[in-house]
Amino acid sequence: MKNKIFILLMFTGLQLSVNAQQFITKAVIEYEVTSNVKKIMWSGSFADMLKDQMPTFKTGYYDFTFANDKSIYKFDHWSEESRKVPQWFKQSDEDNVWYCNYVTGKINMQKNIYGATVNVDDSLPKLKWKITNDTRVIAGFNCRKAVAIMFDSVYVFAFYTDEIMISGGPCSINGLPGMILGVTIPRLYTSWIATKVMLTGVNETVIKPVTAKKYYDLKFLEATIVDRTKDWYSDDATENKEVQQQKVRTLWQTLL
User: Fold this and answer.
1) Where are the domains of the chain?
2) CA nearest 81: which of 47, 57, 51?
3) What pLDDT score does 79 carry?
4) What pLDDT is stored for residue 230 in this prediction?
5) Are 207 and 65 in contact, with CB atoms under 8 Å apart?
6) Which of 99, 91, 125, 147 minimizes the C-alpha distance to 218?
7) What is the spatial order of strands in the sheet that 57-67 belongs to?
8) N- or C-end of the chain: fewer Cβ atoms within 10 A?
9) Domain 22-217 has CATH 3.30.2010
10) Over the chain (256 residues), what is each successive 10-residue block's mean pLDDT?
């Protein structure tokens, strides 16, 4: 009799544990995106003068709205301190939009490139992830760490939760068995951290591709950046190395 009671209590406990788990299929996730302005800006007398007048970090807040394996990710607002950063240095952040369909594996992006808008329609970039045993709690969710390399040499460190049932993340980062709530890319001096997950009031009508008269692919976007930055140079060998780094960072940020 005692064994039967014990088994019954154990079974009830397991049922309660399963029922307590969250399996979220739609929500709005807010991300705090922080970039080190003084690291990603170029050097030089004019740039150094600007850096002295700006905060070290620029922090923006973005919304990732998803439902039915589709998502849209776009800018919402700046932190108070980031308002001191010149508008021309923030405009692309405000204009960029990412729409993803994780069933078809397609991405639709609107990108602001030095004042010009380029609309992209292509396949979602794929990353080869290595999942680790490291864990962290982000926005109240238990997350596991994963590592990948993009653009052949750029390390991406991410934390994902399998309680949110979509294989997505900020920008075009995707491909883990759950939602990515935290990302750090050291070579871009940028981090993305989810601050809250809102389960009610999800406006599914905003989850749609950006309409445009013409769409391009990611190869065109890459060629455009290479062309726009080809005249960046310096006669000084040391400075030229930094200019080259600035070029590739601009390319990585645009393709992300």
Assistant:
1) 22-217
2) 57
3) 92
4) 78
5) yes
6) 125
7) 116-123, 106-113, 97-101, 70-78, 57-67, 26-36, 190-198, 179-185, 154-161, 141-150, 130-138
8) N
9) no
10) 45 40 87 90 65 84 96 95 82 93 96 89 95 97 97 95 96 97 96 97 95 93 86 62 81 90
Q: Residues of 226-253 as b/e, b for ≥16 C-beta within 10 angstroms?
A: eebbeeeeeeeeeeeeebeebbebbbbb
Ramachandran bin of 69, using left for φ above 0, alpha for ψ from -120 to 50, beta for the remaining angles: left
- Give this prediction's pTM: 0.86
Distance CA 182, CA 194 (A): 6
pLDDT of residue 4: 47
How far is Cα 84 from Cα 196, in angstroms, rounded to an integer? 25
pLDDT for 3 equals: 52
Hey, what amino acid is at 138?
I
Query: What is the SS3 assignment for the chain?
Result: CHHHHHHHHHHHHHHHHHHHCCCECEEEEEEEEEEEHHHHCCCCHHHHHHHHHCCCEEEEEEEEEEECCEEEEEEEEECCHHHHCCHHHCHHHHHCEEEEECCCCEEEEEEEECCEEEEEEEECCCCCCEEEEEEEEECCEEEEEEEEEECCCEEEEEEEECCECCCCCCCCCCCCCCEEEEEEEHHHCEEEEEEEEECCCCCHHHCCCCCCCCCECHHHHHHHHHHHCCCCCCCCHHHHHHHHHHHHHHHHHHHC
Residue type, 93: D
Q: What's residue 229's pLDDT?
A: 82
